[in-house]
Amino acid sequence: MGSNDLLSGCGGDSGAGGFCCPLAILMTLAWLREVIPLDCGAGSVAMARMSDWPNSSVRERHAAVSTSPDVLRSLVRRATGDDLDQVARIVEGYDNEVYRVRTRSGQRVFVRIRRFGGGLESAKCEARMIERARSVGVPGPEILLLDQVRIDATDYPVMVQRGVPGRALIETYGTLTREQRRRSLSELGSLIARLNSLRADADWRDGFRTEIGNRRDERAAVLSAGFGSDEFAAMITALEGYVDHSSDGHAAMCHGDLGPRHIFLDPDGSISGVIDFGDTHPAAPLHDLAVLRVRGSGVGGAGLDLAPVLTGYGALTTPDFRRRLDLHTLMISLSSLGIGVDEGDEACIFRETARIRTLLKEIRR
C-alpha cells in the first residue's frame, strides 16, 4: 500500500545533533543536547544508558524497542530511491520511534515508526493534516512514504518525511536580533491563524469539558505542588464557568503541540518549517496560542514575547480575549504541572506553579 492510497483516507518527533559514520547509529538525546555514539553490533540498534534518557516515561517506552538498519534501509530506498549513508536515532516524544537519515546523495529524511500511540488510521489522519496545513501556507514537512512496516511479527504505521530546512526555534532564538525576533513571532502568529482557518466539524467545548475532568482527577498532584484545596476549587470553577458561558463552540484544527522544538527558522529568522503534527485535533482557536505560551516560556531566558504573536494572529487583545487566553493557558499549564509531578521534574513544577499563580490573579480581576 503506497502513500497516495493512505492519504485519501482521513479528513512527535524531531531532534538535532551531528551525524555519525556510515551505517553506525547515533542516539540523539534532544532534551539533553548530547550525542552518544553506539555500536550496532549484529544489526539491531543499541540502546543508550538508562540514566541518560530524558524522563522515565520516554525512557521506558523507547528502551523497549529498536529497528534494524536493514529495515531502515528498505524504507529509505522506497521513499527516496537512495541508500543510507548516516543515521541518528531521535529520543523524544511519546508516539514514534524516530530516525534521522542522510542518504548517499545528501537527502535528509526522517523515518517515524508509530510504535506507541495509535494505529494506521492515526497515521493517516496526521498525514492528511500535514497536507491540509501545507495547502494554506503552513510549511509542514513533505511526506515521501506512508505505509506499514513489519517488525517482530507486528505491523506498525511508518511515515518517511523530508526534513524541513533551518534549525529549531529553541536553538536559534537567542542568536536573533530584537527585530528578527519580532518578525519571526509575528510570522508565527500568522501561521497559527492560517492553521486555525481550517475549520472542523466539532464543538471544542466537548473536549474542553473532558479536559476539565482530567484536571479534576489530577487534584492530588496539584495539591502536592503547594496549592490549597480552595485554590484548586477556584481553578476548576473558573474553567467550568468559562466553557458553560461560551456561546461559540466552533472548533478549528490546531497543531496541538506547537512548541519551540517544532518550529524551524532560517538564518534570518523566517519560519522555514513546522513539524510533528501527531497531536493535531479540533479545539478552540485559542488552543495553539495557549500551548505556545506554555511551551515557549523558557526560550531565550524570559520566554517568547506574546505581543508580536498576537499581532500576527490578528487578535484584538481586549480584556475579554486575554481572559479567555488565560483560561486556556491555565488548562495547559495544569496539565504540564501534573506531568512534572509524575516525573519528579522540580524545574517544571516550579515554573508551572509560578505561572498558575499569576494566571489565577489575572483571572480573578
From TrEMBL:
Keywords: Transferase. It comes from Microlunatus elymi. InterPro entries: AGP_Transferase, Aminoglycoside_PTrfase, Kinase-like_dom_sf, Prot_kinase_dom. GO terms for molecular function: ATP binding; protein kinase activity. This is Aminoglycoside phosphotransferase family protein. Residues 84-365 form the Protein kinase domain. Pfam families: APH. SUPFAM superfamilies: Protein kinase-like (PK-like).
